[in-house]
């Protein structure tokens, strides 16, 4: 079935939701646009990922997407909230980085509207995609995306196979910022972290907010508190509250790594920072046969008075 036919069938199926529109986006890929009284958002069925989220009471978008991002089957999209699943980082047997969920087309399972007019979409990765990797045959992945005043994303892994599976994963969320050199991140001051630029050596807790003035690529451990991104130039804070996750990644590629990526602009590092909700490193999970694991993040942007923002 062609993309146009798929989109036409989906538009007919969900015609009772005037705030939802299906359309052919970049690369001829199927997209979903949601526009309700709270926000405008776009979701790519390639990767099952939200690409943009713009609350109507704020001047700036919450999520960043690279102008150089690939929009091609078999490749991940650098922007929004890519789904890294069923492994995060490089696979030990050379099967590539960040799993296969982000580079395949997903299906729309349902769309609902609650009493507050929040739109909830449930997407799933087709079973035949998982079956291509024998270890993951019989395991089901779905995502639940709620778009309203806040953005909530849940990854739901159901192990329908007859054996336990070891899972690491991430919502590799890119946040749009005024300038990465002027923002700071609170909530991880007391957490140790594994530092990728130092060959994953464990570093002591910094005791202060995270700032970005060089490459940052860290896996924070034992994360149990909300994380807040403060952007004084835009008078905005973005708070992330997670469930089913006890780790987080903070990433900015800085100058040299930005130049080395074909799907990322040389100077775009100043416009973004990734704060990723993860099951990574020691937080990887074992999902027994018949069990379900849900990892979820709630993203709450709000206006703040820049005079009250103090870097500690």
TrEMBL record:
The keyword Isomerase is assigned to this record: yes
GO biological process entries: carbohydrate metabolic process
Keywords (A to Z) from UniProt: Isomerase
GO molecular function: carbohydrate binding; glucose-6-phosphate 1-epimerase activity
Keyword RNA-binding: no
Active site (record annotation): 172, 276
Catalytic activity: alpha-D-glucose 6-phosphate = beta-D-glucose 6-phosphate
Source superkingdom: Bacteria
Protein EC: 5.1.3.15
Top-level enzyme category: isomerase
Family affiliation: Belongs to the glucose-6-phosphate 1-epimerase family.
PANTHER family: APOSPORY-ASSOCIATED PROTEIN C-RELATED, GLUCOSE-6-PHOSPHATE 1-EPIMERASE
Protein name, per record: Putative glucose-6-phosphate 1-epimerase
Species: Aequoribacter fuscus
